[in-house]
């Protein structure tokens, strides 16, 4: 097996950060363009006095003092040059005293990947910088969050006092909801915010502060490294590089969709049975071109391929030679140490072939897990136990199968209202039954008056037992920015039901709305019964349910001569 050093994944993480982070802004009240060497004039005989009456030595000292840059000054030219060498677009703001620039910085920060601020601006002891940081974090939270690196670049040695002031500038509700944690040199949240304190040269600092002392020539590179720490996993690297590759492909894709393509698109729309479906088709063909462009750049092979998998698992293992599988045996919690090399082989080559080859070689301890234990608890090798792994599995299942839910930002903020259609999950207010809408997309629009919608009831499946295998895992809001998860599976097709709804006269669709005295969004049927909107499944998951129901309805069942009946093989 090829051995991958632990530092390999760190390099992949840094490469992903470099590909993604493209813009940074600096705010420093002493930013300048650097100091060019003074031209040397002809030699002159020394004189005792200058025109002002001071001695030549005094004048030379004064000139030397003016030519020497302040130890606090930021050399903007050097900074911008170094950033451009790394492929970064860099902007430097040098605010004048008394200038109101907070709103300008907050607006620019919306499109900047990295924000770096001097701490003591015009001798205010961090008042402006801490408020700017609070503004940025509040604005990001209002836009549903984002990856955000904020760096404080200062000659002040009191990092504890600096970060205390920054921490207090973040609204308490945001600190609580996003679990902001303050360390000696950083503040981090669970939603992709990292604030780091870096120090200019000119003061002597001991470790660990000394490790955060960086010259402005190396500052852009150090900021890239700090940004990389926001991407902690394999999938986060994939996400960063996928978006970066889309950025790189944008103009190439745009060049394909010229005005000459409008005619064929109009032709397509005019011929299809439901012309409105062409609106989604227009978006789909653009997305398919972007996907093709990403594939050409081999993002998946580089950042989710075998070498990346091995590097990530070795990073998880750290100095340990084994990873721990957590499982239950006769009601008792058990752990089983598995060599990192075997874990890597399982993930790279597949669980079944590796177990078939390795199972007999594993220890014959009484707690040796069964093959089923490996299958059910494999993710515990990379987490902190069964509960944590189970929660992460639920989150991933919802991420892959659910398109929207009440906790999604556009719906939580009221910017969008859900529309009833294929894949919509609702819950009856009367009998609390969960229902999945099976209505074809073309029959969910352009509704004049009333229309019956077809639903299949769903069983609520417990996610707390290992023997359950729900068809859908759906998030449900629980407090501020918190989510719980429920499992749902379709009931038999013969329990399907239809419910009549009235469409909005303006949109010609059935829309959810708020109901006085109740939390959440509701669809109200013809008879006045309210159905709570639970989630919208991704289109392909809803279609799969429809296909399975159709297969059950269409299966053959007839009598035949039993001795000659063809036996069906079972898996």
Mean pLDDT level:
86
| Computed Rg | 31 Å
Query: How much of the residues is beta strand, in percent?
Result: 15-25%
Helix content: 25-40%
State the major sheet.
Answer: 10 strands, antiparallel
Count of individual beta strands: 21
Shape: globular
- Count of helix runs: 19
Distance between the termini: 33 Å
Give the low-pLDDT segments: 35-40, 46-71
Task: Describe the overall structure.
The protein is an alpha+beta fold. It has 19 helices and 21 strands. Strands 12, 13, 14, 15, 16, 17, 18, 19, 20 and 21 form a ten-stranded antiparallel β-sheet that branches. Strands 4-1-5-6-9-8-7 form a seven-stranded mixed β-sheet, sandwiched between helices. Strand 10 and strand 11 form a beta hairpin. Helix 9 crosses helix 11 and helix 14 packs across helix 15. The protein is globular.
Q: What layout of secondary structure does this protein have?
A:
Blueprint: H1 7-20, E1 23-27, E2 31-32, H2 56-67, E3 74-75, H3 76-85, E4 89-93, H4 102-109, E5 114-117, H5 127-142, E6 148-154, H6 159-169, H7 172-177, E7 181-182, E8 186-188, E9 193-199, H8 219-228, H9 234-256, H10 262-271, H11 277-296, H12 299-303, H13 306-317, E10 322-329, E11 332-339, H14 340-349, H15 351-358, H16 371-377, H17 386-401, E12 402-404, H18 409-412, E13 424-428, E14 434-437, E15 450-461, E16 472-477, E17 483-490, E18 497-502, E19 513-514, E20 521-524, E21 530-537, H19 539-553
């Amino acid at each position: 097996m090829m051995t991958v050093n632990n530092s390999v994944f760190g390099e992949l993480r840094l490469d992903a950060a470099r590909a993604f982070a493209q813009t940074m802004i600096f705010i420093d009240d002493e930013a300048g363009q650097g100091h060019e060497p003074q031209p040397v004039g002809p030699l002159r005989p020394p004189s005792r006095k200058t025109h002002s009456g001071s001695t030549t030595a005094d004048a030379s000292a004064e000139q030397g003092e003016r030519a020497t840059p302040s130890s606090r000054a930021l050399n903007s030219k050097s900074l911008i040059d170094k950033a451009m060498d790394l492929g970064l677009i860099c902007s430097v703001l040098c605010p004048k005293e008394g200038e109101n620039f907070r709103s300008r910085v907050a607006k620019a920060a919306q499109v900047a990947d990295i924000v770096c601020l001097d701490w003591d601006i015009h001798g205010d002891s961090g008042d402006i910088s801490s408020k700017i940081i609070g503004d940025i974090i509040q604005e990001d939270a209002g836009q549903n969050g984002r990856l955000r690196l904020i760096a404080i670049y200062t000659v002040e040695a009191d990092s504890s006092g600096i970060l205390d002031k920054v921490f207090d500038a973040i609204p308490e509700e945001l600190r609580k909801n996003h679990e902001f944690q303050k360390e000696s040199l950083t503040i981090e949240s669970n939603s992709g915010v990292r604030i780091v304190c870096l120090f200019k040269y000119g003061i002597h600092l001991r470790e660990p502060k000394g490790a955060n002392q960086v010259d402005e020539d190396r500052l852009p590179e150090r900021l890239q490294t700090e940004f990389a720490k926001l991407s902690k996993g394999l999938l986060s690297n994939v996400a960063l590089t996928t978006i970066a590759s889309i950025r790189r492909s944008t103009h190439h894709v745009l060049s394909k969709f010229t005005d000459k393509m409008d005619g064929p698109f109009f032709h397509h729309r005019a011929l299809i049975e439901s012309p409105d479906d062409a609106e989604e088709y227009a978006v789909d063909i653009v997305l398919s071109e972007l996907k093709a462009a990403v594939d050409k750049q081999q993002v998946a092979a580089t950042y989710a391929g075998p070498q990346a998998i091995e590097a990530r698992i070795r990073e998880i293992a750290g100095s340990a030679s084994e990873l721990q599988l957590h499982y239950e045996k006769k009601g008792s919690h058990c752990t089983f140490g598995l060599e990192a090399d075997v874990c890597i082989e399982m993930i790279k080559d597949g669980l079944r072939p590796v177990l078939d080859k390795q199972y007999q070689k594993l220890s014959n301890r009484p707690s040796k897990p069964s093959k089923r234990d490996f299958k059910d608890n494999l993710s515990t090798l990379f987490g902190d136990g069964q509960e944590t792994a189970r929660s992460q599995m639920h989150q991933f299942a919802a991420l892959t199968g659910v398109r929207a839910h009440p906790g999604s930002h556009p719906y939580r903020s009221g910017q969008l209202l859900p529309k009833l259609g294929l894949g919509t999950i609702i819950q009856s207010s009367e009998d609390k039954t969960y229902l999945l809408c099976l209505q074809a997309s073309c029959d969910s629009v352009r509704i004049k008056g009333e229309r019956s919608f077809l639903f299949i009831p769903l069983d609520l499946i417990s996610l707390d037992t290992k023997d359950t295998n729900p068809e859908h895992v759906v998030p449900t809001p629980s407090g501020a920015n918190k989510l719980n998860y429920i499992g749902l599976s379709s009931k038999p097709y013969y329990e399907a039901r239809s419910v009549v709804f009235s469409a909005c006269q303006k949109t010609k669709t059935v829309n959810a709305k708020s109901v006085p005295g109740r939390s959440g969004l509701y669809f109200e049927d013809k008879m006045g019964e309210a159905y709570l909107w639970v989630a919208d499944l991704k289109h392909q998951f809803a279609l799969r349910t429809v296909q399975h129901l159709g297969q059950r309805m269409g299966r053959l069942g007839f009598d035949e001569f039993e001795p000659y009946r063809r036996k069906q093989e079972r898996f």
